[in-house]
């Protein structure tokens, strides 16, 4: 739908002031935890129990692994005091643990026996093995695969198999602070699993009051209110791009007609777009820019720590993009589209329904549209960030931005300078991983397919179908060989059926191989985009 939405942006009419105001208002209220917390708690299940068990507290050592809660500074964004999406719920297999990174912290995620998603540091307290390689036990604890230590959702060690015959030693060890792993608050909201990356007691306290960054209506029961609801499916991809560079890119609508020509823009229709910061919106919570994209007008906004919103009044769609700092040189991207039924547009209802139907075939939507959009610029960003680093991240000196279209990029950079402080995964001195080849940057399997329920199933289906088609082709060939061995003429009516079957199977194998490649890697060559 993003593709359709962006195409409509180019052709559409001016924005509606009501939607415009709504964007501005949403940004402001987001920083009022009480107002939004009420909305958030209606649909979200937040895991905010205290992290100390009585038994552990009684030991005098406490169950909370050492953690530092950052000192508050009102004008500097507190990166560790906010919720971040770490996974799409429908893609997270509840039968096994999952590995991810957030703000440079390795995390193991799993669903416990009470049905709560849990997040702990992915590092066993025994000898540092990754807990995400472990097993979810029947009692809901996470068992380390190396020596079998078990941990609950609060990070406390509950069982050490090697001390099975010494109950006292078992109790002492499990009550020791040193046997604990850091545990982080989690909640499920708007189809995503969110983590607040502060394992301290203060972090768990904050979890009950800080709302997730989303359009409030989407957090209502059923994910819909006031005519606003999600349209189509969630998409996520790990991207080998530094967090601030990806944020800068996602807040830059001027690149759409060029980097995404033919996918969500047209390079031949650039007529002088512009983005202008609404100066009164710039603050620690983010900012709003007015955007004119070759005619249509709307807003593009940044809602720290991760949400970028595109709203154009002539369209009933709002584009939500989440940009999450995962680890140095890597970000995770999430996108979704919101339908605002209150906005009247020229797009006929049946057309909207058809697009929704197609976009709900997730694997098809992902390989034919979502991947293509990211493939248009990921490699350029991967190279750009290294060149900027060579200039000590001095964007003012390294970039030359004379056009009004650069307004939102300047605003983004200003926000990071004035409010970002030490941006996790991008702090001065953090080294980027070595530059990757274009093939590695654009590979799809590890960045998306293996983590996407529908794409991984589609890939398995394609591979099975390929084997069946190949088997059919071999059978058809064997029939022809048997006829030849038996001395029967090959150019006979009886040979037509096996020959045709062989040709069809061969063609099918070729088509399926091409489809399989869509889940693995597809090159993106701008010169070839006519
Ligand atoms: S490293 Fe986890 S139990 Fe030994
Ligand atoms: Fe997918």
TrEMBL record:
The primary location reported for this protein is membrane
TM regions (residue ranges) = 467-490, 496-515
Q: Residues in domain Rieske? A: 83-195
- Offer a single GO CC term for the protein: membrane
Keyword Ligase attributed: no
Q: What Pfam families does the annotation carry?
A: PaO, Rieske
Q: What does the UniProt keyword field contain? A: 2Fe-2S, Chloroplast, Iron, Iron-sulfur, Membrane, Metal-binding, Oxidoreductase, Plastid, Transit peptide, Transmembrane, Transmembrane helix
Q: GO MF annotations for this entry?
A: 2 iron, 2 sulfur cluster binding; chlorophyllide a oxygenase activity; metal ion binding; oxidoreductase activity
The UniProt record lists the keyword Metal-binding: yes
Kindly provide the name given to this protein in its UniProt entry: Rieske domain-containing protein
Q: Which organism is it from?
A: Chlamydomonas reinhardtii (Chlamydomonas smithii)
């Amino acid at each position: 739908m993003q593709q359709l939405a962006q195409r409509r942006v180019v052709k559409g009419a001016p924005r509606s002031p009501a939607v415009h105001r709504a964007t501005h208002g949403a940004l402001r209220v987001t920083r009022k935890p009480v107002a939004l917390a009420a909305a958030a708690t209606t649909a979200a299940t937040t895991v905010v129990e205290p992290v100390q068990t009585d038994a552990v507290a009684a030991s005098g050592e406490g169950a909370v692994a050492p953690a530092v809660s950052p000192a508050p500074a009102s004008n500097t964004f507190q990166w560790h005091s906010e919720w971040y999406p770490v996974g799409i719920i429908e893609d997270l297999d509840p039968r096994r643990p999952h590995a991810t990174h957030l703000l440079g912290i390795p995390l193991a995620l799993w669903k416990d026996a009470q049905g709560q998603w849990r997040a702990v540091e992915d590092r066993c307290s025994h000898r540092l093995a990754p807990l995400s390689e472990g097993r979810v036990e029947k009692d809901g604890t996470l068992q380390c695969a190396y020596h079998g230590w078990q941990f609950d959702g609060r990070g406390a060690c509950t069982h050490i198999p090697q001390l099975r015959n010494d109950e006292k030693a078992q109790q002492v060890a499990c009550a020791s602070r040193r046997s604990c792993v850091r545990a982080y608050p989690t909640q499920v909201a708007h189809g995503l699993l969110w983590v607040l990356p502060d394992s301290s007691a203060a972090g768990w306290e904050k979890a009950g009051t800080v709302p997730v960054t989303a359009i409030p209506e989407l957090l209502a029961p059923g994910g819909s209110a006031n005519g606003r609801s999600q349209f189509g499916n969630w998409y996520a991809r790990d991207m080998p791009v530094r967090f601030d560079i990806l944020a800068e890119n996602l807040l830059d609508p001027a690149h759409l007609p060029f980097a995404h020509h033919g996918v969500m823009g047209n390079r031949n229709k650039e007529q002088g777009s512009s983005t202008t910061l609404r100066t009164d919106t710039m603050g620690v919570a983010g900012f709003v820019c007015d955007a004119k994209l070759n005619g249509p007008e709307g807003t593009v906004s940044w809602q720290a720590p991760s949400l970028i919103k595109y709203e154009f009044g002539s369209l009933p769609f709002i584009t939500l993009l989440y940009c999450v700092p995962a680890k140095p040189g890597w970000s995770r991207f999430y996108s979704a589209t919101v339908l605002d039924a209150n906005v009247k547009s020229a797009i006929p209802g049946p057309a909207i329904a058809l697009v929704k139907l197609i976009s709900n075939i997730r694997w098809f939507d992902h390989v034919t549209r979502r991947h293509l959009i990211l493939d248009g610029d990921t490699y350029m960003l991967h190279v750009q960030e290294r060149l900027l680093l060579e200039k000590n991240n001095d964007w003012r000196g390294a970039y030359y931005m004379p056009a009004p279209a650069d307004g939102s990029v300047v605003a983004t950079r200003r926000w990071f300078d004035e409010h970002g402080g030490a941006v996790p995964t991008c702090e001065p001195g953090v080294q980027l991983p070595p530059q990757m080849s274009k093939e590695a940057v654009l590979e799809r399997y590890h960045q998306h397919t293996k983590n996407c329920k529908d794409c991984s199933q589609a890939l398995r289906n394609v591979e099975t179908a390929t084997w069946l088609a190949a088997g059919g082709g071999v059978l058809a060939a064997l029939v022809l060989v048997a006829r030849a061995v038996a001395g029967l003429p090959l150019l006979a009516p009886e040979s037509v059926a096996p020959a045709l079957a062989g040709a069809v199977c061969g063609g099918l194998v070729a088509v399926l191989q091409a489809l399989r490649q869509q889940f693995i890697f597809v090159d993106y060559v701008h010169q070839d985009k006519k």
